[in-house]
Amino acid sequence: MNKNIVLIGMPGCGKSTLSKIMAKRLNKPVIDMDDYIESHEEKTIKEMFDISEAFFRDVESKYSILLGELNSHIIATGGGIVKRKENITNLKKNSVIVFINRPVDDIVGDIDVRTRPLLSKGVEAVYSLYNERIHLYKGYCDIEINNVGEIQKVADLIIEKVQLYKVENNQ
Ligand SMILES: Nc1ncnc2c1ncn2[C@@H]1O[C@H](COP(=O)(O)OP(=O)(O)O)[C@@H](O)[C@H]1O
Ligand SMILES: O=C(O)C1=C[C@@H](OP(=O)(O)O)[C@@H](O)[C@H](O)C1
Ligand SMILES: [Mg+2]
């Protein structure tokens, strides 16, 4: 069985972008959980958050069960996937989990906080979210990658580290 590669990390750390680059390099299918949820639920993430964050989190958990059954996919999660341990348990069955650790200052410089519901309170919200979640990302990942420098090179590094991890763990 060929495991999925699941990317976790802060909103704006590069999960969606890196997953697409990696899928091309490895010639594997890619799923961006946020896009997948939006198209299958026929609601935007914002519309789901407007109902309530709990509503979105329940939907997100439902899809972590479904996507946990796949193999050989590259999967970009939403930054809050780590808020429920069960999500990681579901995904981990068939996946290598990679934490994309990007300096918060780079995230803040890059993303439009107005378009991300949890970051709509501004830059300070990004720092407090990082402090809240960093132990979860570090605790749940199999591999941690620093996203600094050229993004294509970061994608290559992830592929290299995942291959090494699989060899070392007989997967
Ligand atoms: N190493 C990098 N160099 C330049 N831009 C980057 C890098 N990593 C991420 N980005 C940019 O940051 C933004 C947010 O990335 P995205 O893939 O949407 O993050 P996520 O899915 O984790 O929220 C995108 O514009 C992306 O191109
Ligand atoms: O961090 C979070 O709680 C969220 C991150 C978003 O995805 P990205 O990490 O791709 O921005 C999206 O799932 C939703 O807005 C909630
Ligand atoms: Mg994304």
From TrEMBL:
GO terms for cellular component: cytosol. Substrate binds at D34, R57, G79, R133. It catalyses: shikimate + ATP = 3-phosphoshikimate + ADP + H(+). The keyword Amino-acid biosynthesis applies. GO terms for biological process: amino acid biosynthetic process; aromatic amino acid family biosynthetic process; chorismate biosynthetic process. Mg(2+) binds at S16. InterPro entries: P-loop_NTPase, Shikimate/glucono_kinase, Shikimate_kinase/TSH1. Binds 1 Mg(2+) ion per subunit. One of its GO terms (molecular function) is ATP binding. Catalyzes the specific phosphorylation of the 3-hydroxyl group of shikimic acid using ATP as a cosubstrate. Belongs to the shikimate kinase family. This is Shikimate kinase. It comes from Alkalibaculum bacchi. The gene is aroK.
